[in-house]
């Protein structure tokens, strides 16, 4: 399957600076250093989202975590998939919770064919920065036979 996130558009709750732009997570570069990653400002419930432009049946979301520092910030993040933008997509069905994190790791989360146009990754319960170095989304178009 192809990484359908590469064709999407990304947005996030805030930007810490001009470097940590949301597009960094869907540019195909898995480098885990700060300059290759997204970075929100510090706040409660930070989120990042990719718009796939149309609904896909998602088999897996693969996340590369930051490796130069601060990788523990991703602990407690949730992955949501669906077609709603209500509360920035955090009311969509949950694919997975990120409970264990490691320095610069790339981890795959199975999403059991959840259908959605929007993939939202959020840290819902605490004040934090959200940093993602790469987000890959694997799935097929809804209604396609492959």
UniProtKB/TrEMBL annotation:
Residues 1-143 form the Fucolectin tachylectin-4 pentraxin-1 domain. InterPro entries: BG_Antigen-Binding_Lectin (IPR051941), FTP1 (IPR006585), Galactose-bd-like_sf (IPR008979). Residues 1-13 have a biased composition (Polar residues). It comes from the Eukaryota. Keywords: Calcium, Disulfide bond, Lectin, Metal-binding. GO terms for molecular function: fucose binding; metal ion binding. GO terms for biological process: regulation of cellular defense response; regulation of complement activation, lectin pathway. Gene3D superfamilies: Galactose-binding domain-like (2.60.120.260). Residues 1-20 are annotated as: Disordered. Homotrimer. Acts as a defensive agent. Recognizes blood group fucosylated oligosaccharides including A, B, H and Lewis B-type antigens. Does not recognize Lewis A antigen and has low affinity for monovalent haptens. Belongs to the fucolectin family. This is Fucolectin tachylectin-4 pentraxin-1 domain-containing protein. The lineage of its organism: Eukaryota, Metazoa, Chordata, Craniata, Vertebrata.
């Amino acid at each position: 399957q192809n990484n359908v996130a590469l064709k999407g558009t990304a947005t996030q709750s805030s930007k810490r600076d001009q470097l940590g732009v949301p597009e960094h997570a869907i540019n195909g570069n898995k480098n885990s250093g700060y300059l290759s990653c997204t970075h929100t400002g510090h706040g409660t419930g930070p989120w990042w989202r990719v718009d796939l432009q149309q609904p896909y049946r998602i088999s897996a979301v693969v996340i590369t975590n930051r490796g130069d520092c601060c990788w523990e910030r991703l602990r407690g993040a949730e992955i949501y998939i669906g077609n709603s933008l209500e509360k920035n997509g955090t009311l969509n069905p949950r694919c997975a919770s990120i409970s264990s994190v490691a320095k610069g790791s790339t981890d795959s989360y199975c999403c059991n064919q959840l259908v959605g146009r929007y993939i939202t990754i959020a840290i819902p319960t605490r004040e934090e920065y959200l940093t993602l170095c790469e987000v890959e989304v694997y799935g097929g178009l809804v209604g396609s036979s492959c």
